[in-house]
Every structure is written in C-alpha cells, then in structure tokens.
Amino acid sequence: MTERIVRVSGHFGELMQGRIGPEGPVALISLPCPALVLEARLWPGPGLIVHGAGQRLLTPERARRFLAGLGLPLAGRVTMRAAMPAGGGAGASTAALVALARLAGARLTPQALARAAIGSEGASDPLMFAAAERLLWASRAGLVLDNLPPLPRFDVIGGFYGPPRRTEARDMDFPDIADLIDPWRRAAGAGRAAALAEIAGVSAARTLALRGPDGDPTAALARQLGAAGQVIGHTGSARGLLFLPGRIPDTATQVLRDAGMTGIVRFRVGGGG
Predict the structure, then answer these.
(1) Residue 48's beta-bridge partner residues?
(2) Among 66, 75, 109, 151, which is 20 to 30 Å from 51 by CA?
(3) Which residues, 6+ apart, have CB-to-CB distance to 98 below 8 Å?
(4) How do residues 116-171 score in pLDDT, each as one tens digit?
(5) Nearest to 84 by CA among 139, 125, 118, 43
(6) In sequence order, which residues have a C-beta less than 8 Å from that of residue 152 and are 6 or more positions away?
(7) Residue pLDDT, tens place only, 103-114
(8) How far apart are CA 182 and CA 17, in angstroms?
(9) Helices 193-211 + 218-225 axis angle, to 10
(10) From residue 243, how far is each of 157, 159, 192, 228 by CA, in Å?
(11) Given phi > 0 = left and psi -120 to 50 = alpha, else beta, which region is 76?
C-alpha cells in the first residue's frame, strides 16, 4: 500500500446556533470554510499509530474505538495537520474523524458517518455533508431538522479571539433561536444577503450575552468596518465578519489583528462559489 492522503474542509463558527424552543434540541446552521483544511496522511505499517503534529486532534485510543464502531480495519501510521485550532469552533475534531474514516475506505452515507462521530464524541459538525450551510442540523442527535435555501454570496474575514473552548456534548446552555428560523428561510429564499447577515448577528449576540466572554469585540468590529453582520463559534473562539461581495476594506486584516484576533482567514461562501 502506498501513502494515502485525504483533506477535509472545516467550518468557521455557525451562522446560527441555539435551542429550538426552551426545551428543544441544540441546532445550528454551519458556515463552511474552504480556507481551513485538515490533512491526514496514512503510511503502511503494522498496528495503528496516530500523530497530530503537536495538535490534540485525535488520540490513538479514540481512533481505534471509532474505527471499531464502524467495523473498519486500518493499519499504519496516520499523521494529521489542521489549519484550524482545536477548540476554535472550526470543526477540527469532526474533521479528524471524517478524515480517519475516509483513510480507512469508508463507504458511508453522510448521515451514517455523522452518527458514528456522535457515538465517539457526543456531538458532530456537519462537515461530512456537501452543503452544510443548507442544513438546520441537530448536532447532538445527528439529524437534519430542515433543508434550507442556498446562501447568497458572502465574503468573510475573521480570526480566533480568546482561549479555545471545546464542545461539551452535555452542554445545553444556549439561547432559544426558534424565532429566527422562519425569517432565515424567507431571507435565504429571496437571496437577501444583508437580512441573513443581520440574523446571524442576532444569534451571535444572544450567545455572547448568555455565554460570554465579556468585552467580545466582534460586533464593534462589524460596525467599524461596515460589515453586514457577524458570525461566531458558539462553542469556540472563531469570530468572523460577513460582507456583501467585494466590500471587505483593505484595512480589515490589520484592524482584526489590532483587536486581538489571531489566525486571520478570508474566504467566500454561497452564491454557487
């Protein structure tokens, strides 16, 4: 067997995340991020050895349990390198599991792979789906709650602010977003990018008010730079600004760095591109 390589794109926080009703499930709409990729390489050899290139992505023990649950044998040395930090709200943990399954030759539906990831970690980002931004996703149950209209085009710039914060599957302390779902569906169906960015900002503000941290600069940066809205990692440190196409100021990268953000990324989503 020769060296095998797979790459899995992450996400950059969520356009929306919260409870569907006060006692309902935690659900989200993910923001895919082609700029943040996890690369996994497999070299032949006996047993299974997993390295994270200095990153705490996936322990060998969890890798073995995950593959055993799928009934997939895998032997060799696996190295993983992620462009996103663990606990950043950019999908590093889910991407590691998806990459491992693909290295093992899994021929699973996205739903089956998501269930396996949840069985391993208790929660999963929808990185195994081709258009995650069109799903209202129950991240603790692995269920598609609704299929949504496509996103219009956005330009996004952001980074990571504050310490990492890993997802805890039993954490249900999120604001109610049930009232945001129908407005999102209507705005997406009409291609109203500015309205969608505003709704994403409302979801971010609710989560920051409930969960912190205090003094988060994202909303102020959105106003300063003329962004249409903002997006955050609701359980991570990702912070981003949503712009209508072509409107990111030349000064944006430096402004974000001056505000304390690290790992600045810039990418485009939606609109078929």
Answers:
(1) 76
(2) 109
(3) 8, 113, 117, 127, 128
(4) 999 888 999 999 999 999 999 999 999 999 999 999 999 999 999 988 888 787 88
(5) 125
(6) 188, 191, 192, 193, 196, 270, 271
(7) 999 888 999 999
(8) 14
(9) 150
(10) 8, 15, 12, 5
(11) left
Q: Which of 180, 217, 224 is nearest to 202 (CA)?
A: 180
Strand 48-51 versus strand 76-82 pairing type: parallel
Sequence-distant (6+) residues with CB within 8 A of 49 are 60, 76, 77, 78
CA distance linking residue 132 with residue 182, whole number of Å: 18
Collect the ranges in the chain with pLDDT lower than 50.
Answer: 273
Token code pair at residue 51:
């390295």
Element (H, E) at 154: strand 154-160
